[in-house]
Write a structure and sequence with these properties.
- 4% of the residues lie in helices and 45% in strands.
- It contains 1 helix and 33 strands.
- It is mainly β.
- A hairpin with a 5-residue loop joins strand 2 and strand 3.
- The strands form 8 sheets. A 5-stranded antiparallel sheet has the order 1-8-7-6-5, with no helix packed on it. Strands 21, 22, 23, 24 and 25 form a 5-stranded antiparallel sheet that branches.
């Protein structure tokens, strides 16, 4: 009997070590969800393709409101807020598909909005007003008639939700293993890739069927990305992993320099290369590595500062640091092409208009138009009031 027990424990350890797929769980629906996980929706108008208001920029302000700002007339076209008046926080990004804006709010609400008029197509709520689900650091992904997003519920754990973009109703959902989940998911090859705690999952995007689940030693806290062949995801500490999309096998792993960690969402792929930035104790770095082999191509260091944000624009990497340093690096060699110290600290992403000499970001004072030639910060839209505790803001030029 003792020998059999040891054998079973050994087999269980092997399964945990290599992250083999557990028994497939039954997908959840509104019939089996608790009240705090329930999805409710209200459709106002049928969703239809809408012309893009390409003179405007969408601003998800740090007070939680979303509005359309006309860059030509410098006027606000429309404003939308979450139903709960106390939801004064921008914690998520938004997505535009066929002229429809899909925006989540921290209180669990998700809206589908006409980008021209601000009128609602539908409203959905994950959870209830009294027992709220938290939507934080999410980018809604629209694919093949569904919207995918992960949500946190401290009492019930986190869920992966798939909503029908026609009316915001629940198509399927899956209860994840960890309570916290604040990293955007990835859709690739008709599969959903996401993380929860120390697990990485893949699901069938249409049905929600769990395809694979891989367990790691550390919590996985990086945004999953793809080079069109494999999946890449970082843990909360100092490792980046390359995974096969079909079985989630580890193909290679890359270790950050000593005292560097936490890639989070500072990562993207281009032309079979991975570009990512980590935080550090004394030195933070921006890396370029080969996506096929994990071999380092170049590394650029920033001393006594942390890179807060990076993005790709044409053939270069743009970003800013915690100490308000705006920079541009050459993708091929990591050399600094542009660098300046800002007087205003960005709290949003960077958006680039068609004019090569300009860029936009948001700060505590409002929308900043930055002239790259003059290195001049122009307050394009000024807020009438300021908040002390700012989490983030988000910009999206409509085009």
């Amino acid at each position: 009997m003792k020998q059999k027990l040891v054998t079973l424990l050994f087999a269980f350890s092997i399964i945990n070590m290599f992250g083999q797929t557990p028994a497939i769980k039954t997908n959840y629906s509104n019939k089996s969800l608790t009240a705090s996980d329930m999805v409710t929706n209200k459709a106002m108008k049928p969703v239809k393709k809408v012309t893009l208001d390409d003179a405007s920029i969408l601003i998800h302000d740090y007070d939680g409101s979303l509005f359309s700002f006309d860059l030509e007339t410098e006027t606000i076209g429309w404003t939308v807020k979450a139903t709960d008046s106390y939801t004064e926080m921008c914690a998520n990004k938004l997505t535009i598909s066929d002229g429809v804006i899909y925006v989540p709010f921290i209180n669990g609400e998700i809206f589908a909005i006409n980008n021209e008029t601000g009128e609602f197509f539908w409203k959905s709520r994950l959870g209830t007003i009294t027992d709220q689900i938290v939507l934080k650091d999410q980018t809604p992904v629209v694919y093949n008639g569904k919207l995918y997003i992960t949500a946190q519920n401290q009492n019930q754990g986190s869920n992966l939700y798939a909503l029908d973009i026609k009316d915001g109703s629940l198509s399927w959902n899956y209860k994840l293993d960890a309570a916290n989940n604040d990293i955007p998911l990835l859709v690739f090859d008709s599969k959903i890739f996401t993380q929860s705690g120390s697990n990485v999952y893949s699901f069938d995007a249409n049905t929600g069927k769990l395809l694979n689940q891989k367990n790691f030693e550390e919590a996985m806290g990086g945004k999953p990305v793809t080079d069109g062949e494999n999946i890449f995801i970082a843990n909360d500490k100092d490792f980046l992993f390359a995974l096969s999309p079909n079985k989630l096998d580890v193909l290679w792993q890359f270790k950050l320099d000593e005292n560097q960690y936490n890639i989070k969402e500072r990562i993207f792929c281009k032309d079979n290369k991975l570009y990512f930035a980590a935080h550090g104790t004394n030195v933070t770095s921006l890396y370029a590595i080969d996506s096929k082999t994990g071999t380092k191509i170049w590394k650029t260091d920033f001393k006594d500062d942390n890179i807060e944000y990076i993005t790709r624009e044409n053939e270069n990497v743009w970003g800013y640091t915690k100490k308000a340093k705006l920079f541009e690096l050459d993708l091929t060699n990591g050399e600094i092409a542009f660098e300046t110290k800002l007087t205003t600290l960005p709290v949003s992403n960077i958006e680039f208009p068609n004019d090569d000499n300009l860029l936009y970001y948001y700060c505590d004072a409002g929308l900043i138009q930055f002239d790259l030639n003059e290195k001049d910060e122009n307050v394009y839209y000024m807020r009438t009031s300021l908040m002390e505790n700012i989490y983030s803001a988000y910009l999206k030029i409509i085009r």
